[in-house]
Known about the structure:
The complex is a heterodimer of chains A (about 525) and B (about 130).
Chain A: H1 18-32, E1 45-48, H2 71-77, H3 86-98, H4 108-134, H5 144-167, E2 174-175, H6 181-206, H7 213-240, E3 247-253, E4 259-264, H8 269-283, H9 296-299, H10 301-304, H11 317-333, H12 338-368, H13 379-385, H14 393-414, H15 423-435, H16 440-448, E5 463-469, E6 482-486, E7 491-498, E8 523-525
Parallel strand pairs in A: 1-2, 1-5
Antiparallel strand pairs in A: 3-4, 3-7, 5-6, 6-7
Helix pairs in contact in A: 1-3, 4-6, 4-7, 5-7, 6-7, 12-14, 12-16, 14-15
Chain B: E1 14-19, E2 21-23, E3 26-28, E4 31-35, E5 55-60, H1 65-69, E6 76-80, E7 83-84, H2 90-97, E8 104-110, H3 112-123
Antiparallel strand pairs in B: 1-8, 2-3, 4-5, 5-6, 6-7, 6-8
Amino acid sequence: MDNESTYSGYSYKSSHSRSSRKHRERRDRHRSKSRDSTIRGDKSVIIQAPGEPLLDAESTRGDDRDDNWGETTTVVTGTSVDSISNEDLTRISKDLEDSSPLECRRYLSPALGGVLGLISLITPLAFLALPQLLWRDTLDPCGTPCEGLYISLAFKLLILLISTWALFLRPPRATLPRFFVFRCLLLALVFLFVASYWLFYGVRVLEPRETDYRGIVGYAASLVDALLFIQYLALVLLEVRHLQPAFCLKVVRNTDGISRFYNVGHLSIQRAAVWVLDQYYSDFPVYNPALLNLPKSILTKKMSAFKVYNLGEENNTNNSTGQSRAMIAATARRRDNSHNEYYYEEAEVERRVRKRKARLVVAVEEAFTHIKRHQDENAATSSPKHPREVMDPREAAQAIFAPMARAMQKYLRATRQQSYHTMESIINHLQFCITHNMTPKAFLERYLIAGPTLQYLDNSRGRQWTLVSEEPVTASLRQGQVFCLRRRDFSLVVTVAPLPFLRLGEEFIDPKSHKFVMKLQSETSV
Amino acid sequence: MSFVPGQPVTAVVQRIEIQKLRQGNNLILGFSIGGGIDQDPGQNPFSEDKTDKGIYVTRITPGGPADVAGLMMGDKIMQVNGWDMTMVTHDKARKRLTKKNEDVVRLLVTRKSLEEAVKQSMGGFPRP
Lengths: 526, 128
């Protein structure tokens, strides 16, 4: 029940004896190897191509910034003032290797993009201001047409600003292994535009001190137009092009075979990988390593049925191979009944789970009847007669947790979920449900169904995934491609299939043509 | 050939005797029937009165026993071997025609042209 109590900083000393606590810790240490850090959660996904350094220099204009800002602090504060047990140590070391190091190179590309954007926004204003500042006296006076252009320039700049904020100034969600081709293209384009405009301006306007101010204003307005068009191009390339579905991706988790199908548009492999991972966190049930294998009792039964006795006086070295060969031959000849045992074992397990579930449901229902929302209107009438103690949700949750604790613990053990739910988390959830007037069934929904991985994450650190692919990851998706997204304990295998071309025909049906007759007509040949 | 309920049905009939032909294990007559009291009479292409639920001949195998005997498509079968066929279900009619122990079926059939023929032959002679 309280596997992670020391980790969560909630120093809970159970009333159990010291020996049982030690036993539990030993068991947890053993289990911590299998416990994935899917429990600890993250904000950003880092996809790393095999053998590549973590970063790409030009990944974004501010979008791919990985906010790992919390990682160094959370690891340290994970250890509370209590003593650090061995399990904490293993967990910390796993965290360190799991989380990505904070590198300054990561922020190079957002900074670059930001600088470029700033320059391109300032440029039209500079174009307008410089003549005024430098050779104001010699400029042709420019009345109404210029003012009209000023207004249009101002509004276009405003729109540019707002749409830049809306489209590009968003916290990045992933770091890609190679640079994002479209973004780089757009950055290069913007740079080229602005540079060529400055070049022209420098040569034709600043040098000869051009006096036609209206022309200069028109030039600045054309730059703003060009920037708006580049932004349109960015919108289409980055946001719109991949919206029309073109491929169907089949994503299979290799450990337990859970699969899903997703429709995506034209994307590069790395972008498709990010998209798949987004869906993975909310669609796939959480990876529970405890549920995977056949119970050992079934698998090892075959081998343990035979014992080999050594009747001669030979040396043991060449006997071992003889022994194993004999055992293998004997087991091959023996009739294999393990499927039978598997069937009965599974039926037994299911029966046990159902029984415990029934007990849990009854216990929770009963516990919820002990508590009721306190109405303030009745306070005046009820307080002189029955002074009831008024509790806040936390206390109420703790009060009704006790009767259902045992049933909950047994159920979680039966479904092997006990590592995902600590006592603290259960009380928190109970408090949440009480606050929002949920029924016992709504409270139990979280434990009866294995939820998506996102439910078990606390978003503090980045997630490290490795993209394994035979083709370069900036290549566009094509039929028959297969790539893997690997994590430490499991991996997702993604297969690409194109969506079929649809030939839609048309048939007009006159609404008056719907007529029916009784069909009781038969013809028999004699 | 409509009937008035409660009144006896009168019709001009032709007696046709068909010898069953043995084909393998079956005795076949070489025609198909349609109709019956459990069928939809409106579908019948041969009947004059679309509420007539009698048994009609819908198809004749050319060269078969029925064709040889003179049965024609569109005939309404009134009796088979003495059994009435005007108020039977389709399946009952089939059974009556395909009894295994009978080699010969004697049908009473009626058709429009028979009525016409009789009328014509009687028409010139006004009744006294």
